[in-house]
Amino acid sequence: MTDLIHAILNRSSEPRLDAPAPDGEVLDRIFQCAARAPDHALLRPWRYLVVEGEGLERLGGLFAQTGESEAERDKLRKMPLRAPMIIVGITSVKPHPKVPEIEQSMSTAVGMGYMLLALESAGFGGMWRTGPMAYHPSVEAGLGLAEHESIAGFLYVGTVKNPKPDLPRLETSHFVSAWPPVDC
C-alpha cells in the first residue's frame, strides 16, 4: 500500500484541536496541495482566508449574527475558538461557457479535501464544517465575499488533542455496483 492510500484510509475528522497550527512553509505546501485539485479550463475558482488569533473572535461575532436566541448566539460565538486556525474555503465562480458553477464548486471542495490529507500528512488535524453560517448573507458580507462567491466550508485546523477511535470501514459492496446491471 502506498503512503498516499494509507493516509486516505486512515484520515479522520478531528474535532479536538489545539495549538500549534501549521505556519510558514508547511502552510504554503498545504495550499499548494489544494491548488492541484481538478480544475476544468484552469479557472482557479477558489480562494482561501486564514483566520487566527483575534480573527477567530471576530469570526465568532459573524457566526453569532446567524443565531436566533441569545443562547444560540453565544454558542455560535464560541465555535471558532475550537481550533487555533480556520481556513475558509471560498468558491469564486468564473463565467465560462463550458464550465458550469457546480464544477467550480466541486473543484473547490476537492481542494479542501486535499488540504485535509496534507494537514494529516504534516502531523496536524482538521475538521471540515459548514452549517447555516456558511450560507448566511451576513457571514458572507463580513468575510468580504463578492456576489459571485460562496463559502465551501470552514476547515478547523490544529494539532490533534485526543485522536478519535478508528471508524469502522464500509464494505465497498454497500455503495459500489456495476452498470449496466448484470441481469439486464
Automatic annotation (TrEMBL):
Protein name: Putative NAD(P)H nitroreductase
GO terms for MF: oxidoreductase activity
Keyword presence, rRNA processing: no
Binding annotation for FMN: R11, S12, S13, R36, H40, W128, R129, T130
Cofactor mode of binding and number, as noted: Binds 1 FMN per subunit.
Origin superkingdom: Bacteria
Species this chain originates from: Marinobacter mobilis
Keyword line: Flavoprotein, FMN, NAD, NADP, Oxidoreductase
The Nitroreductase domain, residue ranges: 10-158
